[in-house]
Amino acid sequence: MSGRQRTLFQTWGSSISRSAGAPGCSSGPERPQSPGISRAHFPPAAEATEAQRESDDDVLLVAVYEAERQLSLENGGFCTSAGSLWIYPTNCPVRDYQLHIARTSLFCNTLVCLPTGLGKTFIAAVVMYNFYRWFPSGKVVFMAPTKPLVTQQIEACYRVMGIPQSHMAEMTGSTQAFTRKEIWHSKRVLFLTPQVMVNDLSRGACPAAEIKCLVIDEAHKALGNYAYCQVVRELVKYTNHFRILALSATPGSDIKAVQQVITNLRIGQIELRSEDSPDILPYSHERRVEKLVVPLGEELAAIQKAYIQVLEAFASSLIQRNVLMRRDIPNLTKYQIILARDQFRKNPSPNIVGIQQGIIEGEFAICISLYHGYELLQQMGMRSLYFFLCGIMDGTKGMTRTKNELGRNEDFMKLYNHLECMFAHTRGTSANGFSTIQKGDKDKKFFYSHPKLKKLEEIVVEHFKSWNAQNTSEKKCDETRVMIFSSFRDSVQEIAEMLLQHQPVIRVMTFVGHASGKSVKGFTQKEQLEVVKQFRSGGYNTLVSTCVGEEGLDIGEVDLIICFDAQKSPIRLVQRMGRTGRKRQGRIVVILAEGREERTYNQSQSNKRSIYKAISGSRQVLHFYQGSPRMVPDGINPELHKMFITCGVYEPDKPRNLQRKSSNFSYKNGK
Fold it and tell me: Angle at CA 457, nearest 5°, toward 499 and 286?
């Protein structure tokens, strides 16, 4: 072939503009010449030959263009030659449950509920790859709720099926709008957060009709008006011809929530597996769950008694006005008070008008704040309560009326001053990171503001001690990892400070979200990824995390999980449990305060059992979407073809190494 002869690909690739008319038409764009070719240098005979070749190319080009245009009109763009098969990779060991779920998900909108670590992303990658093959001009979209998850999943999917990186792109809110519009039209497999998708749909930047497969990670979030729900609502305005694959470790917190997810995401069926499902048992390791109930102790009980007196002073007013029906003040919850306030707003008494209404609203606001503090005291301890009350009394929370009302209450001020004497010296530490503990007076004894802290310390120290005894290698402590969950940042900080006493055996790091305006500075999403990287590589062996560490992120193998608090939603515990038992036996310890927290945990476990029973039993309990598109044309039944997929080396868009300036990054090896 002559060096001047272009291939059909060169011609087609450089000339087709999908938005223009057929190539070769006078209205189309002028076709650029091949690199290094200039007609001016050709002799007349060669010029004629070249013109003939280009004419031949043009004929082929028009034929290809017309064929592709016809293909996009027929069968929704389905390629019948590619569609005769569906590909399943053998580069990873074939697991029957993954193969079955992947096959199911190709032909029906499916919610896949698998315990963490059992291959939800693998299944998604298989489904995405097949839709990428079947619809050559279609788009495949993967949505995850956070930027770090988006970054993690694009690499994970590439490592499974090896879709060319040149066809994939990651988009976040920081990607400029005009760049995103360009990416939508030039790339075929997109990884993004749902909010970006909502924005691009509303601006018309996203070619909605071209989307053929939509994968939704952490799908249990698809409640109310969450961005996932908005995306699906917007997409169906343009097309119903796309597959939905939803992924979650757990379907929802209760049956009502599960039904909402099914309805909002147009789910036709659920593929549910629990830790006890026979087909996953060969691939999962035992997870021992231990429940430890800790008495409050005399000191905490005395603080609680004093705090209840304050609660009675403010809640009794609402009870007397008949706007708060529950009269058992010590057992009221913040949620019950919020419900009572909502009821008051919907159906106010005709006797309460004008200024009286404002007074009652103010009393509700004070009670909601006080009951939040009450829950902190019971679950997290006295120090967490003190930091919360400080935020009110120093004005940083902006609750002027609450501050003034509490300041006039003698019982409250007496309790507040008592807590201030105990914890005022620690407050600066919490605001600026806890590295000051190391620089300051190390001999100062750590104050255990809740008996649960002492129990947690015992468990962690004993874990490393027993690991040391059983393993004789030089890096014995480096080979085990511990992860501790607590819902509040102040508690995370307190736990980390306590464990710092046990350096260098315990090398602790905090892991919090990036929300600002808190007493403890959050991590940016890049910094979160760096913490995960260092934890996995052994820079730290103990991670103390808020809920940001529960979902999705690949933390690596963890041998011991400690839950420092109980959650009403079973989702939270399932997510936490999924951090362990991936490659070897794992242990989960749930530390509960005696009384309300223990009851909350028991109720959560009961809810989880009822959800699994409802899904596994009769379909009448849940109403599934009946309009799932088959996507594959009638008469075509793709056959399974197992294939070894060779993937290249994934190259991230940008280097993700960074040196965090915050002191929270500075205490590796006690420095």
Answer: 110
